[in-house]
Amino acid sequence: MKRNKRLRRLVVGSTVAAISLAMASSVSPWVEAAPRASRQPVDEHGNPVARPVPQPKYPKGKPAQDPLPKGERRSAGTTLAEVQKQAMKAQGANAGQKGKPGATDPAVGHPIGHDHSSMMTGTSMRAAAVQGPTGLGSETGGRWSLGPVLPSPAIHSVLLNTGKVLLIAGSGNQWEGFSVGTFTSVLWDPKANTFKNIATPHDMFCAGHVILRDGRILVAGGTTGYPAYDGAGNLTRDWKGSKKSYIFDPIKEIYEPTNDMNIGRWYPTLARMGNDQVVSVAGLDEGTPDRGGLDTPVNEIFTPNAGSTWDAWQGGQWSALNSRAFPQYAHMILTKDGKLFYTGQSTANNGQPPGLWQPYSNTWRDVPGLPYRWQRNAGGSVLLPPAQDQKVMVMGGGDWALPALNDTHIVDLSAPNPAYHEGPAMANAKMYVGAVTLPDYTVLQTNGAAKFREGGVHDAQIYNPSSNAWTTVNSPSVDRLYHSSALLLPDGRVITLGSQVISGENELRMEIFEPPYLFKGQRPTIGAGPTWIDYDAAKQFTWDVTVAGGASIAKVSLLRPSATTHSTDTEQRLVDLPFTAQGGQVTVNVPTNRDLLPPGWYMLTVLDSQGRPSVAKWVSLN
User: Fold this and answer.
1) What is the pLDDT of residue 311?
2) Which residue, 514, 544, 535, is CA-closest to 621?
3) Once rounded to an integer, what is the mean pLDDT over residues 315-325?
4) How many CA atoms lie within 13 A of 219 on its CB side?
């Protein structure tokens, strides 16, 4: 296979005290590309027949539930802290040799002798990379440009119904900040291109989050303890999860407390149900003074409390739901019949098969057909547009000791016996995939690395579900590895942000992608019409719409804003709206299925017959 080359760049830094909007550029040597992953033989369970490194035993104290047949190897015993440690050793970090060059502090990924007094410190890094095409015309390839430099890392990214973007770092995987209680969140205003520091009440690093019906953000879990090692570099204590729960108010622009979870969670998944309850699964618990966190199989549910002395959300209560083990940051998608679909992708993959889970009855149905289950770490998962089709695509993924994959698989959850089938391959193998649903009923995939936290893959493609094919577009210039994300803005642009290499340095430059549909001429516009809509089947809702001469209205949709971290996003979905168009107006009917279309704020978008989406209008479905 032909190898590509690309020009490396320097990671840039900034400080909270001096927010810089300057662009950064530099020149560094050319490096050779990493090869595309090769397929491995698999057993009947879809797992590699032979793994290149021995796997540790399933550790004492981990969940007893084992979804894999007896005798099959597991990678669950390798904690993230151990993985990071081994990867640093493989790169010559000599971890655990305190005081020597390349040695580490008790926090993962912080070489002693480097100045990490600020979590915004950057340094030059070299790694093999893959470079996709550039220079395509904007109408076919879109356009990338550097955006502002962030004042702090973007570990979690949430689009708010105010149009602003909440970026949460917490301690940002930086021991120094954690040890002195320095936790950060910032609010970015895309229109004004300004940042605002948000007081962050505890360490929300590696929490879970979900968007509530009224537009506020529930953030639950996080970090109460970093891992520790003995003098030989052996892990003696893993990460510890937090029980804390807060709600971010996008109008007040502050965090407000709600009741805490019953179990600490680090790397949890939060998923909102159609009835407004929120399910929390997975994560490392709070540990004890003698040990770090362990994967918890206990799932919880958050229920609004209308009779609370606070409001219903702040007064909401967490309660135990059931026991079923899931891998950390399990990718969960709410189906139209009220189940949660675990796609098979996660951030600490243990080979657990995909399946449909009814959280209230705790019933489970395997969804077969997904191969290479051990390599589904930090791949992409997306509910393909429109959501009514109930088709889910998974993309790529990797493993700390195995190369990334370039395959995709698609499942039709509305089929009598859902099963994955192979889809069109991506151009390059990658993990840390950023998958974004676009308002023209397509999906962008970007970001990624060829292997665990190194080897940036600089490419982007757009998948069209109608043709079941990828179209390659222009490539970004910035590495997007671990802790990266991609997110759609209401104006149709996509931002990519965040990235962290194995030694801990954060990428602070934002990059902005303007998809090809922004270069096809005059876009439709949405004018006067309601902001508040509801599920009443007898009602219709009408907006003024202007389209360019010769074009007509082709589709109308509601697009849920993203809340993403670690390639996981339980919110993202595009729901098609039945409509009629006449006399400069469009009139829609709203689907009444709350599991298909959960209540909350959405981006209303009109797509014309030339494939041009309007700037979105925010509407609230209640």
Assistant:
1) 84
2) 535
3) 95
4) 32
> 545 is in which domain, residue-wise?
521-621
Q: Is residue 539 part of a domain?
A: yes
Is residue 549 a part of any domain in this protein? yes
User: Is the pTM here over 0.85, yes or no?
Assistant: no
* 48 vs 38: CA distance, rounded Å: 12
> For 375, which DSSP code?
G
CA distances (Å), origin 576, targets 276, 436, 584: 21, 17, 20
Task: State percent of the chain over pLDDT 90.
Answer: 70
Q: How many Cβ atoms from other residues are within 10 Å of residue 68's Cβ?
A: 16
pLDDT digits (tens, 9 = 90+) for 98-112: 222 223 333 322 222
* Total domains in the fold of the chain: 1
User: 176: how many CB neighbours lie within 10 A of its CB?
Assistant: 18
Q: Looking at residue 539, which CATH number applies to its domain?
A: 2.60.40.10
Token pair for residue 487? 């997110």
Query: What are the C-alpha distances in Å from 249 to residues 154, 221, 361?
Result: 19, 18, 33
DSSP states along 407-443: -EEEEETTSSS---EE-PPPSS--BS-EEEE-TTS-E
DSSP summary character for residue 295: B
The CA-based angle 96-98-99, given to 5 degrees, is 145
90 token code pair: 């493989």
Q: Are 400 and 452 in contact (CB under 8 A)?
A: yes
> Is residue 355 a contact partner of residue 366, using CB atoms and an 8 Å limit?
yes
80 found inside a domain: no
Q: Is residue 569 part of a domain?
A: yes
What's the pLDDT tens digit per position in 168-202?
999 999 999 999 999 999 999 999 999 999 999 99
Please say whether the beta carbons of 480 and 496 come within 8 A. yes
Q: What is the DSSP string of 163-230?
A: S-EEEEEETTT-HHHHHTT--EEEEEETTTTEEEEEE--S--TT-EEEE-TTS-EEEE--EEE--EE-
3-state secondary structure 438-468: CCCCCEEEECEEEECCEEEEECEEEEECCCC
